[in-house]
Amino acid sequence: MKFNKICVLGLGYIGLPTASTFATSGLKVIGVDVNPSIVKGLQNGELHIYEPGLRTLVQAAIISNKLEISEQPQEADAFIIAVPTPFYGEKKADLSYVISAAEAILPHLRAGNLVVLESTSPPRTTIDILVPILEKSGLKAGVDFYVAYSPERVLPGQILRELIENARVIGGINPESAQAGHDLYKIFVKGKIITTTATTAEMVKLMENTYRDVNIAIANEFSRLAERFGVDVWEAIQIANLHPRVNILKPGPGVGGHCISVDPWFFVEAAPDLTPLIHTARQVNDSQPHFVVNKLETILNGLEGKTITVFGLAYKPDVDDLRESPAIEIVQLLSEKGAIVKAYEPFKPDYPLKHGSMVKTLEEALLGTDALALLVGHQQLRDLDPQDIQSKTECRILLDTVNGWDCAAWSEAGFDTYQLGVSRCD
User: Fold this and answer.
1) Total count of domains within the chain
2) Residue 257, in any domain of the structure
3) Is 212 part of a structural domain of the chain?
4) Secondary structure of residue 262 in the 3-state scheme
5) How does strand 307-311 pair with strand 193-197?
6) Do 283 and 142 belong together in one domain?
7) 35 lies in the same domain as 182
8) Residue 114 contacts by C-beta under 8 Å, 6 or more apart in sequence?
9) CA distances in angstroms from 74 to 111, 212, 287, 304, 406, listed in the order given
10) Are 254 and 217 in contact (CB under 8 A)?
11) Within 10 A of 269 (CB to CB), how many other CB atoms are there?
12) Which domain range does residue 300 map to?
């Protein structure tokens, strides 16, 4: 199947790089978003997200007239849905954006078109939700047009490279749809392209992130056990991972982002009777911010009236993505316990923090604080010089939740240093 023009609905962390990559590969691309400020910004060359190399890619695509930014879809050979699928209430999948995107495609759907859902979704979303909406056009899915599911499998901070190099799974509602999806993505994908069924592809995406979530839950429980037994969990994990069949991930202040912290709930929602392990792992990781706050409360002998500076709000290092970030929850929990919280997030200094206050400079972050807490291992935060920090603040208490600081160096600089998964750093 040949493609000359495609329409990408949703210009977030996945949709915008995908649209730009197709455009710079020679296709005419209509990039659609329902947020007028995002559309206007992109039309003026302003990006609403940070990803290394993305600004240059987007600008090149727009300048070449291959990428057009719009609030409305247009007729195209293929439509890609890359909208958010958050959860709501009791951890239920919110498919309203997927439904709205599918309905927006309806007036433009023609025989021979391909529709691809990229948004992470519960099993059978493609078959049970997407297809019935599209068939309101009077066309028959799998006969008159093709439908496939192809989840993104990229790491923020490396999206542009991984979009091209990673293996890609294409799940069709029938073999012909899977082949159509294969023909579309082979335009720029250099990694292996695997075709399967739509529901299998949905399962694969959820399984990948659920596996990691369960692994992190184990690491977080190990960190709690290590503190009780007087062990350095970071050393213990490093040694355990020398075993050729063991790969324990790292503990931390919690699990965030739109994938690992969300996707397992889709399994729990779809089959609660079959997912006790997945459910428990989610509860462990969701409770980790509380564990961190309780540790700070113990260190400071109470939180009421104490000023705490947290370093980093993103859900992972060296990105500006704050979706479902455990660091933000920690700020809220600290505030609720009476602490005065200052947050220093170098990748998003203007973030509208609901609890606590944002500071834009390191000097402001260090002024008049009782404790420092490293919540995200941004490289520029890991590189802070303890001797330099010591000269700029009277604070002498710090908690490292990500193993980002050299405890010995900070202790030598005069700090009382504490670390997640360690009883006390000396």
Assistant:
1) 2
2) no
3) no
4) coil
5) unpaired
6) no
7) yes
8) 1, 3, 77, 78, 79, 145, 146, 147, 148, 177, 180, 181, 184
9) 15, 38, 45, 56, 55
10) no
11) 16
12) 263-419
Does the predicted TM-score (pTM) go above 0.70? yes
Q: Which residues are bridge partners to 197 per DSSP?
A: 172
Angle ∠(367,370,288) on CA atoms, nearest 5: 115
Please choose, from the candidates 105, 101, 65, 104, the residue with its C-alpha nearest in 3D space to the C-alpha of residue 84: 101
Domain match, 183 and 40 both: yes
Residue ending a domain, among 172, 191, 210, is 191
| The two structure tokens encoding residue 315 | 């859900």
CB neighbours (10 Å) of residue 185?
20
Please give the Cα distance from 244 to 334 (Å, whole number). 40
Q: Is residue 59 part of a domain?
A: yes
Given the residues 7, 28, 66, 259, the one annotated as active site = 259
Q: Could you tell me the two tokens for 88?
A: 């709501």
Tens of pLDDT, residue by residue, the chain (426 residues):
899 999 999 999 999 999 999 999 999 999 999 999 999 999 988 899 888 899 999 999 999 999 999 999 999 999 999 999 988 877 889 999 999 999 999 999 999 999 999 999 999 999 999 999 999 999 999 999 999 999 988 887 889 999 999 999 999 999 999 999 999 999 999 999 999 999 999 999 999 999 999 999 999 999 999 999 999 999 999 999 999 999 999 999 999 987 898 999 999 999 999 999 999 999 999 999 999 999 999 999 999 999 999 999 999 999 888 988 999 999 999 999 999 999 999 999 999 999 999 999 999 999 999 999 999 999 999 999 999 999 999 999 999 999 999 999 999 999 999 999 997 666
- Written as six digits, the tokens of 79 are 């439509």
In a domain? residue 219: no
Judgement on whether residues 183 and 268 belong to the same structural domain of the protein = no
Cα separation, 149 vs 168, in Å, equals 11
179 and 269 belong to one structural domain: no
Residue 103, both tokens:
């309905």
Same domain, 180 and 277: no
Last residue of one domain, picked from the residues 191, 212, 242: 191
| Cα distance between residue 84 and residue 416, in whole Å | 42
What is the distance between the alpha carbons of residues 327 and 347, in angstroms, rounded to a whole number? 14
**Coil, strand or helix: which one is 142?**
coil
Q: Which helix (H) or strand (E) holds 87?
A: strand 87-88
First to last CA, the chain: 64
205 is catalytic: yes
Among 28, 66, 205, 306, the active-site one is 205
158 and 9 fall within a common domain: yes
Q: In this structure, what CATH number is given to the domain that contains residue 111? A: 3.40.50.720
Kindly list the distances between the CA atom of residue 403 and the CA atoms of 41, 222, 250, 375, in Å, as whole numbers in the listed order.
38, 14, 9, 10
180 plus 275 within the same structural domain: no
